Amino acid sequence: MPDLPPPIGIDRPGSFSRSVFHERHPVLIANLVGDFPYPPRIAEALEALLAESLAGTVPPRTPGGPEIHTWHLEVAARAGLPWDSLPFLWAESYFYRRLLRAVEYHHYDSPWCGVDPFAPQKHAQLDGPELRADLDAYAALKGADAADRRRALLLASLWGNQADLGFRTNNPGADTGVGELLADDADALWALAEAPGEAPVIVVADNAGREITADLALVDHLLETATGPVELHLKPHPYFVSDATGLDVSDTLRALDRDPHEEVRDLARRLRDAIRVGWLRLRTHGAYVHPTEYRTAPADLAEEFASAKLVILKGDLNYRRLVGDREWDPATPFAEAAGYFPGPVAALRTAKSDLAVGVDPARLAALDAEAPDWRLTGTRAFIQVRP
Ligand SMILES: O=P(O)(O)OC[C@@]1(O)O[C@H](CO)[C@@H](O)[C@@H]1O
To answer: Which residues cross the membrane (predicted)?
Structure first.
């Protein structure tokens, strides 16, 4: 493996990654305890997890749940370490594993088994005015020129990534307007996605709610123009607040069914039909909730990526996994940071963490001067492709 920059940590006072633990997570835990009438044992377990993650060490016991062997190895390698010393990506992923443990999500003998702790927040977004406006905009695309429509669907999926509920936890009023595209490899993306051949296009989803709705509209377009099937890869269980699971897709289709616009109801119908005939495949993999980068993806998932026409990775967390959640020089070419990926790959991501690669050096200097927090606000976005 080539020399890689060091992982982003959570130890630096004033850093964004540290603020996720010290500012975002306390709000997140308070929201959960407010959203559900959890009994004392669950509320206490959540508070204990929060306290441990702010000032404690990693206990030796592996938190139960699926993929236990992977987690045995991961935890054994970090047991006894202060949370502060952990890499950001590992620590966050472990935090959500522990959170699911605290709310008894995988306990078959608990009445809280399978209860998505983030469902109330996800449902609020599905019923909210922002999604309403998104669907009005979708319906208004009817009759648009084909190239304009395709561009609009791609940009809606891209900017839909601003609406993740982890980011909104402590940024409730975050600007959801469209911002600046710092890289735009859209032509390369379409060339790959619409190339002849029967290999699938894989879309690795990120968040439920507005983002998965826009992603489904993009998937519908791909189903229309691609010459092979489309796979939508989802999380196997709740994660990073709003990450989309199979249940979220089903809830979204139901919400689309209720829409006043015929175009939107037709979208839901086409998607269901495509799932039924196997043209659209919903898929998941345990690796999507591992605390690791795609550089070390399990062989079976790497093979799936390798055999796809194109893998489209949505969102900030997938980006962190793709290039590595590391202290990259932002001028590093995307093709270099993602060069190891087993097949053609595209990233659609709004910037909501310190990581950046593939930024034009001249623009970078100006950005750092005019908007020093540009990496964190979700108002800068990337469409990056490595063929
Ligand atoms: O993957 P997503 O939904 O685009 O973003 C995930 C996120 O909420 O989590 C991280 C911090 O918790 C940040 O990278 C980002 O803000």
So the answer is: none
pTM (predicted TM-score)? 0.96
The whole-angstrom separation of Cα 158 and Cα 348 is: 5
Q: Count the Cβ atoms, other than its own, within 10 Å of residue 131.
A: 21
Enumerate residues 6+ apart whose C-beta is below 8 A from 329. Answer: 5, 357
Tell me the CA end-to-end span of the chain in Å, nearest whole number: 21
Q: For residues 254 and 304, is the Cβ–Cβ distance under 8 A?
A: no
Tens of pLDDT, residues 172-206: 655 556 789 999 999 999 999 999 999 999 999 99
Task: Find all residues with CB under 8 Å of 278, minimum gap 6, and list them.
Answer: 229
Question: CB–CB of 142/263 below 8 Å?
Answer: yes
Give the chain's domain count.
2
Q: pLDDT tens digit string along 16-61? A: 999 999 999 999 999 999 999 999 999 999 999 999 999 999 999 9
Nearest Cα residue to atom 5 of ligand 1: 316
| In contact, 291 and 74? CB cutoff 8 Å | yes
Ligand 1-lining residues (CB < 6 angstroms) = 20, 92, 161, 164, 166-167, 206-207, 240, 315-317, 352-353
Of ligand 1's listed atoms, the one at least distance from the Cα of 349 is 4
Shortest-distance atom of ligand 1 to CA 164: 3
Residues 63 and 176 in one domain: no
The Cα 169–Cα 54 span in angstroms is 18
> What is the extent of the structural domain holding 214?
119-386
